Amino acid sequence: VQLQASGGGFVQAGGSLRLSCSASGNILRMNSMSWYRQAPGNQRELVASITRTSMTDYVDSVKGRFTISRDTAKNTVYLQMNSLKPEDTGVYYCSIDTWTGAFSRKYWGQGTQVTVSS
Fold first, then answer.
1. Contact in structure between 105 and 47 (CB atoms under 8 Å)
2. How far is the C-alpha of 94 from the C-alpha of 74, rounded, in Å?
3. What whole-number distance in Å separates Cα of residue 29 and Cα of residue 5?
4. 24 and 40 in contact (C-beta within 8 Å)?
5. Residues in the chain with pLDDT < 50?
6. Residue from 26, 35, 32 nearest 7 by CA
7. What is the residue-averaged pLDDT of the chain?
8. What is the C-alpha to C-alpha distance for residues 92 and 115, in angstroms, rounded to an integer?
9. How far is the C-alpha of 36 from the C-alpha of 14, rounded, in Å?
């Protein structure tokens, strides 16, 4: 299973970016899909997640600004980021939780850099 993330970049504060992450390979069942981020010197944190039934959850700092969505047919998850702030800067990683038929397994994408200037 491979995850390919895209959409990061450089943007001024108040701007928007849309991240995409597509999963490919032998996936029996895709459960939740998530976005994490890691700023320099900080631990990786969960930013947003979406379940198979499209229930969503967000870290408090992005509520009202970020929207996670998924296209199940395309095995793709998106993160629309609006009203970006300098503190949103970091490497964003997508992740999926799958069911193999015997156990759960988590996969990670390669990360995409998001830089927000003040």
1. no
2. 15
3. 20
4. no
5. none
6. 35
7. 95
8. 10
9. 21
- CA 28 to each of CA 32, 43, 51: distance values in angstroms, whole numbers, following the listed order: 13, 31, 16
Task: Tell me the three state secondary structure of residue 90.
Answer: strand
Give the C-alpha separation, 55 to 60, whole Å. Answer: 16
pLDDT digits (tens, 9 = 90+) for 78-108: 999 999 999 999 999 999 999 888 889 999 9
DSSP-derived letter for residue 29 is E
Report in angstroms the alpha-carbon separations of 30 from 17, 78, 82, 92, 103: 25, 15, 27, 20, 12
E strand map for 39-103: 45-50, 56-58, 66-71, 76-81, 90-99
Sign of the torsion angle spanned by Cα atoms 20, 26, 32, 35: negative
What pairs with residue 108 in β-bridges? 95
Q: How far apart are CA 117 and CA 12, in angstroms?
A: 5
**Cα–Cα dist 105/67, whole Å:** 25
Cβ neighbours, 10 Å, residue 37: 22
**Gap between the Cα atoms of 44 and 77, Å rounded:** 19
